[in-house]
Amino acid sequence: MLPLASQAAIRIALVGDSTVNDEGGWGPGLRASFAPSVEVMNFALNGRSSKSFRDEKHWEPVLAAKPDYILIQFGHNDAPGKGPERETDPQTTFRDNLARYVAEARAAGAQPVLITSIVRRNFTLDGKIKPDSLVPYVAAVRALAATQNVPLMDLYSLTLQQSEALGPAGAESLGRSDQDGKLDTTHLGPRGQQEIGVLAARELVRAVPALKPYLHELVPWRDAMRQKSAWYGSAEAIRIADNLLLYQHDNGGWEKNIDMAAPLGSATLRLVTANKKEAHTTIDNDATYTQMNFLARVYTATNQRQYKDAFERGLTYLFDAQYPNGGWPQFYPLRHGYWDHITYNDDAMQGVLETLRAIANRNPDYAFLSDDDRAKTRAAIQRGVECILKTQVVVDGKPTVWCAQHDENTLQPAMARRYELISLSGAESVTVVRFLMELDHPSPEVIRAVEGAVAWFQAAQLKGLRVERKPAPGTPKGWDTLVVADQNAPPVWARFYEIGTNRPIFSGRDSVKKYSLAEIEYERRNGYRWYTDRPRKLLEQDYPRWRDKIKK
Smallest Cα–Cα separation from 282: which of 231, 357, 216, 340? Predict the structure, then answer.
């Protein structure tokens, strides 16, 4: 990609219907795929055909904007049944309308690009896209592009291949549902807007190679914290950071389980904006502290103040959310349920503490913070360590590990969701121990806690068994999770252990404790991670290194 400073400004106009526009079309994904020096203007409108778009005077503003390229996709609303004000014949009026758009675009000094409509995601019983009224219009676009020597973006072919590869169930994720829950197989939801928008951008640079230097790859949120340092000053990093500003709630926190790097269409943007006052923000599933860490890196790379301000609001949120006893609830403000428990589950509290420790240790990403911020951070960490030590479960006078969540008042192990019973955690306790191991100058209490936990992990390992998925025709997923005997298998640990007996325990949505994974219902058996190998590295590598360190 060319340096941004060397790129000339490019203006691209999108013309078409609701499958193109920013509300339910692929426009947002295409826009996000290009450098900021490429301005993508989306003139596409719901319900318009090649006829009605012109008749309603929407074409004139496109030409008046003086774009360099005009991308034209019609067909969905030209088909029979759409009414005389919109309907066209693919071999005559539709073709004539497109030819006129092409001629007038060229006369205005713009390069026209013709586009075949994206498919309607309706399938036959054998998993193929049903041929429908779009097909003759697609053929007409292809023919006109060939005879008029116009660059062609064949999105019909690309989206047909995409949908058939995903299959009927997978293709559902590209769409959205209406207010009644009915699946919309024509328009696009957030995932479809991104993925088909990226397809469109790649197809555009194939059709118009001159635009290739301006194309960049979108980074999904799951990979946003895995980039090299220089990337955080890039256009793509700034685009994602701007998304995070929009997703940040007024209380300073963020929600979970959202791809916050995905391009925002107008419908999603309205929803995100409306939700900013909602109080349901969380540290669960890496939320809030991960967004903060990303913003810190972008601020360090760009020195743009808005990212620093958002980070500091997030830091205040973390300070406010901490209980006086040092723990953090899963959600803050409190929701008055299991969400209020001190939460080690899914490494929630551990993730917060790791972020705070990086701040206290003057990690370069957080050099912009004040000494007062660092002092508050060190105090929060100290309270967090005290909470960890107080919540470590003691059995027969010996410290063991932790429950995935603890009561915020009594500090005793607590139940969370119906299948997350009071227990000793063979998974989340690993990151708790790692955090304690990384403390400088550990106190005798910390050393005792680590040694107790390591001894428990050694005693709790399960040998001679292997967890595997086996084909199970006729089941919802087509496979089932089984525990089989295998004397050569490496040790594993259960997610939950019964306190006092150290027996692995399992539960379905009925909250009835079972001692075998096979005893719980199919949905929970295959919808949760019941075993883990996380303690293995802790015992084989982390613990020996820690012992060597504290001896020095």
Answer: 340
Residues 166-208 have pLDDT tens digits of 999 999 999 988 777 889 999 999 999 999 999 999 999 999 9
Answer whether the bond into residue 333 is a cis peptide, omega within 30°: yes
User: Are 227 and 273 members of one domain?
Assistant: yes
547 and 403 within one domain:
yes
Same domain, 228 and 194: no
Domain boundary among 155, 181, 214: 214
Catalytic one among 285, 325, 363, 502?
285
Question: Which residues does residue 184 pair with via DSSP β-bridges, in sequence order?
Answer: 176
Kindly report the CATH number assigned to the domain that includes residue 262. 1.50.10.20
Domain that holds residue 548: 392-552
Question: Among residues 214, 239, 256, which one ends one of the domains?
Answer: 214
> For this structure, is 434 an active site residue?
no
Q: What proportions of the chain, in percent to the nearest 5, are helix, strand and coil?
A: 45, 15, 40
Per-residue pLDDT tens digits for 83-131: 999 999 999 999 999 999 999 999 999 999 999 999 999 999 999 999 9
- CA gap 254, 238 in Å, rounded: 18
* CATH code: domain of residue 165: 3.40.50.1110
Residues 289 and 357 in one domain: yes
Tell me, yes or no, if 285 is annotated catalytic. yes
Cα–Cα distance list, 464 to 399, 487, 489, 497, 524 (Å): 27, 4, 6, 18, 24
Q: Round to whole Å and give the CA distance between 488 and 146.
A: 63
Q: Which residue in 54, 417, 466, 547 is the catalytic one?
A: 417
3-state SS track over 389-440: HHHCCEECCEECCCCCEECCCCCCECCCCCCCCCCEECCHHHHHHHHHHCCC
